[in-house]
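Researcher: Sequence recovery benchmark, item below. Answer with residues only.
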């Protein structure tokens, strides 16, 4: 019976250590903390076939769904092919809070989301 108790204690200790590491990792990889007073919008500019667009958007949606950050996602068409545009449109249908606009329409699209500040572009 002593061996059984030692095994149970070892499993519980390992589970606690792994859980602590998992929580610490989650806190470390969260880029910003969201609040009800801060509205964040990630603008993902995509061009060509939009090969990594789905992975990028699903990663941002994962952060949102975990409650790590309050976030809207805007996909900006920076010269996507018809296949890339279809991928972007499917993502807007699949995920709530994801929108699609042309690259030049970002300021107007942000204004529709409630943005009241100024917009600067950086290259």
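Model:
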């Amino acid at each position: 019976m002593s061996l059984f108790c030692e095994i149970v204690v070892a499993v519980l200790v390992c589970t606690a250590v792994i859980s602590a590491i998992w929580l610490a990792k989650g806190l470390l990889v969260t880029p910003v903390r969201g609040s009800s007073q801060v509205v964040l919008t990630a603008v993902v500019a995509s061009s060509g076939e939009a090969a990594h667009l789905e992975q990028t958007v699903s990663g941002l949606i994962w952060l949102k769904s975990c409650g790590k950050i309050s976030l809207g996602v805007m996909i900006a068409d920076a010269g996507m092919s018809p296949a890339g545009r279809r991928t972007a449109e499917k993502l807007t249908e699949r995920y709530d809070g994801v929108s699609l606009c042309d690259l030049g329409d970002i300021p107007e699209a942000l204004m529709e989301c409630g943005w009241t500040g100024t917009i600067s572009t950086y290259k």
